[in-house]
Amino acid sequence: MASSQNEVPPPLQDIPTAKEKKYDRQLRLWGAGGQLALEETHILLINNGPGVTGVETLKNLVLPGIGQFSILDSAVVSEADLGVNFFLDDDSLGKFRAEETVKLLQELNPDVKGTAITEPLETWAVKDKIFTPYTLVLIAAPLDPAILATIDKHVQALEIPAFYLHSVGYYSQFSLYLPPAFPIVDTHPDPTSTDDLRLLKPWPALLEFAKQKTASMDKMNGEQFAHIPWIALILHYLQEWQAAHDGKLPTEYKEKTQFRDLVRKGSPSEENFDEACAAVLKTLVPPKPSSKVTEILNAPEAKNLTATSPPFWVIANAIQQFYEKHGELPLPGAVPDLKAQSDTFIQLQNIYKTKAREDCAEVVATVRSLEKNLGRSGKLVIDEKEVENFCKGAAHIHLVRGRPLKIVTPDTVTTFGDRTKYLANELTNPESLSLLYIAFVAWDEYVATHTTSTKEAGSEGLKVPGAGDDYEADAEKLTGISHKIIDSVIKEAGTFVEDPEYSQIKEKVGKICVELARAGGAELHNIASLTGGLVAQEIIKVITKQYVPIDNTCVFDGIASKSYVLRI
Amino acid sequence: MAVNGDSRARWRYMDHILTRPGAYTDPEWGEGIIGTLENAKVLVIGAGGLGCEILKNLALSGFKSIDVIDMDTIDVSNLNRQFLFRQSDVGKPKASVAADFVMKRVPGCKINAHVCKIQDKDEEFYMQFSMVICGLDSIEARRWINALLVGMVDYDNDDSLKPLIDGGTEGFKGQSRVVIPRMTSCIECQLDMHAPRAAVPLCTLATIPRQPQHCIEWAHIIKWEEERKDIQLDTDDPEHITWLYRTALKRAQEFGIQGVTYSMTQGVVKNIIPAIASTNAIIAASCCNEAFKIATSSAPALANTIPEGVDPETYDPDEEFAPAPNNYMLYTGDNSIYTFTFGHKKKPDCPVCGNLPKDLTVPGDQTLQELIESFAERPEAQLKKPSLSTGGKTLFFSSPESLRQQTEGNLRKKMRDLMEDGEEVVVTDPAFPTEFKYTIHLT
């Protein structure tokens, strides 16, 4: 431990670079790996309508340094654009909106490359392989559903994540298409939920440590006694408990509180005993993975591996084998800070780290044998770091089962297939904003039904509710469409909603439709900006494969100031 | 192409909302709304991550008259989200660069920049605004402006009531809230929503470090004082951070602790909170959306609604068990998207907004005894054993017995002989932990 006074100062290898300084506040969230993923991204915005939300989204992505973005928009800047879009100025008037917004967005960050595409969507979207350069596609409503269907077909074939977004008056809504399997390892769980110390199933090295630290406790001096790590205390008293209870561990709530009283008797006031007592209920739980994690480890993709299976599934298979053998997941290996002497704490950290490394090594060995048996090519060798990362976060992995975007058909009541029952339940949940979602589907149906020609340039040929003077008539039409959707959902789900609930639902959706028609397709800057923040955040999660994205539709109500996520 | 700086055509989209009644607007709503919006004077506190967004949002919500206060200058680490600033602006004051940028981009919007602390301005300055929006990272500054705005409320002057809209972010999380001073729960009432982080005990730093952060705090708090006490620590000076980093790293190596990095040193010493453009955009827009609704009444705003399922005729938010109007939106975006919008209840014992002196008319020839007896019946007081004092002197102590005896001589005196007209009286009672304040008007 002692170090020579003449030691040269350590080399300053990690003095931040200019780039690290600029991105410091975000690197603390998603790290260098997340940043690299962002920098390799090329996002396409297909912009329609007032087109503010998409541009605000891009602002929040250009700032943290995505690689490239493109805006496809054949609209020409009008005076109304200047009152709602910050990335246009008076000089932009009469010019292509795509070119002007790209220019002003690019000023935000010289590291980002922007491209404008002014060709009409109708002719552009049907070209062969036109979507291949893009990592992610953003589509702003309104657009002809036939074109949306074409885009959807392309993104699904290429498994490119895509967002379809609306921002109308005080309301907004967006849906995220992800591939059928979108796994995340680095979910950044709440640090208070990640402690996994295996106190009910200690291994020999940990037991030996506890024994050493609690040996002749009654003869210790005050200083030593006050610094016995609480982990050792719990293990010590567990043995005492087992001796008095036929070798059984405290498992029921009542037993655990009795056990806590036993620990408390050891010392009424020492801080380490406080820590031990506080930890009893939280840590004396079997390290059983959640049903969600079990489901992922047993997913068909993990069971039926092929030579080209993504690494996630190969590791999942190896971890499931580990679980079947040991009855627990690999140990994550982290120890929370606790009252102890420095060397004792480091000793304890090393005991956990060593066990975590052993567990990980076993999983790596299984991965290697799987690779060999599957005949995976040398190019597809799974990085040991990836296995290690998975082992550390195994209890908190997440899988999104992506679903296609909902595309309406003119003059047809939209239905929801296997999500109908779920949606019917949501209709009567007072916390749910499902009615706002339904009103947006009705809004799309209105646009689809009132679109006379798809041959006209851009979105000019589209008619949105309330665009004309008689917005009240449109509100009624929109309400009518919404009522039809609601009735069909209830009927298809085979349920029945009684009055007064049924009338209340219809009245509520009617009010939403009034607000949507009132806006006449207008975006309010605040709602566009807020929604642009939400969408950008989801894009960052999808691109970095960190944190947990929505699954799969989000609505925001700017009147009540509430959001809600639905799985459609 | 020439543009009229501010023709109504520019506001065509927003005017749909401002000229058409909605599902929640009053029947009389509509007349003069655009004028009200254009005449509103808004104060923005902070021109950082939230402030830049707030200024942009207000300008594009049709507000024409904005002031912004910020004492800070632009740092390179601001550029990943404070989008009104460029590399060439580093070192310049945030408030003026932000104001100039937005005024240039949105003609017709006037923004006054103040490069100073909020505490440098007086009540007269704050009185000119119709509302205040805060985008701050300091709890102290929030409490200061909150206390000032609550203190400024004068029930005889509607203009003295200034809604306070507050936003805050940390990483993927944030909150926005609306305070109507004296009417709804204030920042001080909500103080428990911001629990301070527990500090590491000094003895841990000094003798038994276990974490890399302990080594950094040791270098920061103990070692700097020992070895460089003549130099004022500047956490923006790379040489200083480098010294702390080296010192912490050496200590960590002595104890076998891993993980001290330059970036962590900076984070611990400067108490850096991660910040990204998207969360700022969400929270700032939520704040400005509330400001727009308050200014235009085009839809109900937070803190200004009657809770669902409550009879509006009998609703009294100050009643003990009555629900508070929704005034707070908590936002989390790290695990899916989740907002929790709720009514934070005003705290009657809030030291800032809990107790406004009530006006009390008292006949000048009434005795103190009679006045004291009347407190038992006053519905807002119902005090059985009140003690009374004015700013300067004690009038009567109900307990303990020794003090009661010393002051009971006053009980027979007439009120006009005990105090001046308009004087404030503080009434306390052993049964309540709070003070009741009255302004006495003698007749």
UniProtKB/TrEMBL annotation, chain A:
Q: Which Pfam families match?
A: ThiF
Q: Its function?
A: Regulatory subunit of the dimeric UBA3-ULA1 E1 enzyme.
Q: Which Gene3D superfamilies match?
A: NAD(P)-binding Rossmann-like Domain
Q: Which UniProt keywords apply?
A: Ubl conjugation pathway
Q: Work out whether the entry's keyword set contains Isomerase.
A: no
Task: Give a yes or no for keyword Isomerase in this entry.
Answer: no
Per the similarity annotation, which family is this? Belongs to the ubiquitin-activating E1 family. ULA1 subfamily.
PANTHER family found in the cross-reference section: NEDD8-ACTIVATING ENZYME E1 REGULATORY SUBUNIT (PTHR10953:SF29), UBIQUITIN-ACTIVATING ENZYME E1 (PTHR10953)
Query: Which parts of the sequence belong to the THIF-type NAD/FAD binding fold domain?
Result: 23-546
Query: What's the protein called, per UniProt?
Result: NEDD8-activating enzyme E1 regulatory subunit
Residues in coiled coil: none
Sequence intervals crossing the membrane:
none
**UniProt pathway annotation:** Protein modification; protein neddylation
Automatic annotation (TrEMBL), chain B:
InterPro entries according to UniProt: E2-binding (IPR014929), ThiF/MoeB/HesA (IPR045886), ThiF_NAD_FAD-bd (IPR000594), Ub_act_enz_dom_a_sf (IPR023318), Uba3_N (IPR030468), Ubiquitin-activating_enz (IPR035985)
SMART domains linked to this entry: E2_bind
Q: What is catalyzed by this enzyme?
A: ATP + [NEDD8 protein] + [E1 NEDD8-activating enzyme]-L-cysteine = AMP + diphosphate + [E1 NEDD8-activating enzyme]-S-[NEDD8 protein]-yl-L-cysteine
The record ties this protein, via Pfam families, to: E2_bind (PF08825), ThiF (PF00899)
Cross-referenced Gene3D superfamilies = NAD(P)-binding Rossmann-like Domain (3.40.50.720), Ubiquitin activating enzymes (Uba3). Chain: B, domain 2 (1.10.10.520), Ubiquitin-like 2 activating enzyme e1b. Chain: B, domain 3 (3.10.290.20)
EC number assigned by the record: 6.2.1.64
Q: Could you list this entry's UniProt keywords, alphabetically sorted.
A: ATP-binding, Ligase, Nucleotide-binding, Ubl conjugation pathway
The record's top EC class is ligase
SUPFAM superfamilies, per this entry? Activating enzymes of the ubiquitin-like proteins (SSF69572)
Region spans: Disordered? 383-407
Stretches of Polar residues bias are at 387-407
For the keyword Lipid metabolism, the answer is no
Q: Which domain of life is it from?
A: Eukaryota
Q: Where is the E2 binding domain?
A: 360-443
In the record, the note on similarity to other proteins reads: Belongs to the ubiquitin-activating E1 family. UBA3 subfamily.
Q: What biological function has been recorded for the protein in this entry?
A: Catalytic subunit of the dimeric E1 enzyme, which activates NEDD8.
Q: What is this protein called?
A: NEDD8-activating enzyme E1 catalytic subunit
